[in-house]
Design the sequence.
């Protein structure tokens, strides 16, 4: 069985949804199709929630009305028979009446998560009805019946595997199974989610639970490119990546793939293929356990990085100094991206300012603290095993005219990371492309 995930752009309009149907029905194989909300929907639901937090019911209702009208237009365009147009409108009325009900309630984060779940419930309901109108034996699998996170907000893989397999056992004989990405329940049974980009994660978790043959992530670009096409000309899709390379690139800024998607597939050795709904015949990118040797695979950039340097004469030969520094970040649940050390200092980077000033105050117990905001991590992924030669010189010769703040290598044999000021990001990406992909 294959798992196919389609993002918001891929199902962003009635014509796009019809094209997705053609793709999933192309070879006649049984598949599980994971759908995101239609593009723009989640942003509107967030806007509605923001109004409700501020107790502005009129503002919320205005956004709700606009979004409902937009969906009514999608319904009219998607279905060709009066019967299914009415079924589609009934689905829309039911969901939007539910959203409107929150304008009369006390609004908390729990209600917000209920509202945010509606986008995927609507898109999957519409797609299911469309397949039924076309005569396809389609089954809707409610993600809230099997997708769960534990008390640490990590997927409860045993629960997912047990309940998903039980649901499929009760619903045999269908051509296409449809389910929601992103949404889940938490350990208390409340509606929750896997965070932004979580539809990729859903597809990967389903693939792992079912030991699928392949997981396909369909977006609006033909695979993972060797650099960011928004800033660099003549980028090319990478034909093949290892799990480790893909994980590094996704974590350090490659937008096509959610970082969490790789691990469940890697653990179960399930290939992940990145494909383009706008160009279905394109090869895309295959992510697997195979490592292509002796190459630089791709470059990605992660924005909004904060660098902190802690300098202290007490660090020299001091046992336990590093542990104390790391415990500060651990106490605020703030992960570190990069780290470099010397005899009298340690520099680290983080990607959130949520607890920044508290972290700085605590770090001042150990020495002076310098902070640089608006930084960018450039990740160069490839085969950089310890016995490889020439890659360091190629990378740093390419960056001869770019000021470098930090360098990190050795933590992984698949990644060299450098920190530059945000204003030097584009120059760094272009120089690396020119130097490494001649």
Sequence:
């Amino acid at each position: 069985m294959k798992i196919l995930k389609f993002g918001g752009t891929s199902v962003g309009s009635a014509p796009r949804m019809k094209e997705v149907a053609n793709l999933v029905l192309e070879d006649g194989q049984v598949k599980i199709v994971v759908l995101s909300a239609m593009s723009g929907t989640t942003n509107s639901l967030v806007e509605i929630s923001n109004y409700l937090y501020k107790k502005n019911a009129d503002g919320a209702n205005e956004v709700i009305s606009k979004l409902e009208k937009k969906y009514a237009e999608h319904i009219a365009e998607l279905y060709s028979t009066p019967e299914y147009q009415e079924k589609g409108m009934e689905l829309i009325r039911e969901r939007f009446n539910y959203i409107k009900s929150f304008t009369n309630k006390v609004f908390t984060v729990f209600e917000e998560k209920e509202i945010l779940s509606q986008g995927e419930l609507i898109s999957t309901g519409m797609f299911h009805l469309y397949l039924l109108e076309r005569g396809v034996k389609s089954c809707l699998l409610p993600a809230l019946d099997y997708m769960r996170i534990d008390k640490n907000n990590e997927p409860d893989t045993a629960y997912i595997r047990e309940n998903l397999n039980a649901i499929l056992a009760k619903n045999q004989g269908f051509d296409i199974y449809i389910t929601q990405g992103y949404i889940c329940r938490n350990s208390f049974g409340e509606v929750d989610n896997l965070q932004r980009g979580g539809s990729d994660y859903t597809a990967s978790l389903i693939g792992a639970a079912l030991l699928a043959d392949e997981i396909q992530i369909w977006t609006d670009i033909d695979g993972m490119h060797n650099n960011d096409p928004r800033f660099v000309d003549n980028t090319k899709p990478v034909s093949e990546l290892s799990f480790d390379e893909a994980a590094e690139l996704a974590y350090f800024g490659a937008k096509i793939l959610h970082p969490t998607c790789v691990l469940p597939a890697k653990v179960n050795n399930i290939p992940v293929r990145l494909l383009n709904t706008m160009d279905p015949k394109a090869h895309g990118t295959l992510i697997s356990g195979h490592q292509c040797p002796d190459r630089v695979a791709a470059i990605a950039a992660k924005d909004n990085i904060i660098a902190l340097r802690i300098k202290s004469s007490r660090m020299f030969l001091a046992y336990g100094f590093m542990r104390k520094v790391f415990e500060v970040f651990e106490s605020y649940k703030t992960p570190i991206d990069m780290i470099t050390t010397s005899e009298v200092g340690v520099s680290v980077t983080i990607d959130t300012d949520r607890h920044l000033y508290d972290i700085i105050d605590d770090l001042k117990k150990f020495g002076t603290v310098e902070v640089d905001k608006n930084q960018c991590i450039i990740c160069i992924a490839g085969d950089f095993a310890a016995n490889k030669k020439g890659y360091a010189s190629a990378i740093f010769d390419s960056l001869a005219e770019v000021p470098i703040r930090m360098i990190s290598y050795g933590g992984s044999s698949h990644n060299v990371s450098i920190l530059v000021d945000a204003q030097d990001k584009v120059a760094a990406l272009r120089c690396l492309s020119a130097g490494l992909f001649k």
Notes: The two ends are 40 Å apart (CA to CA).
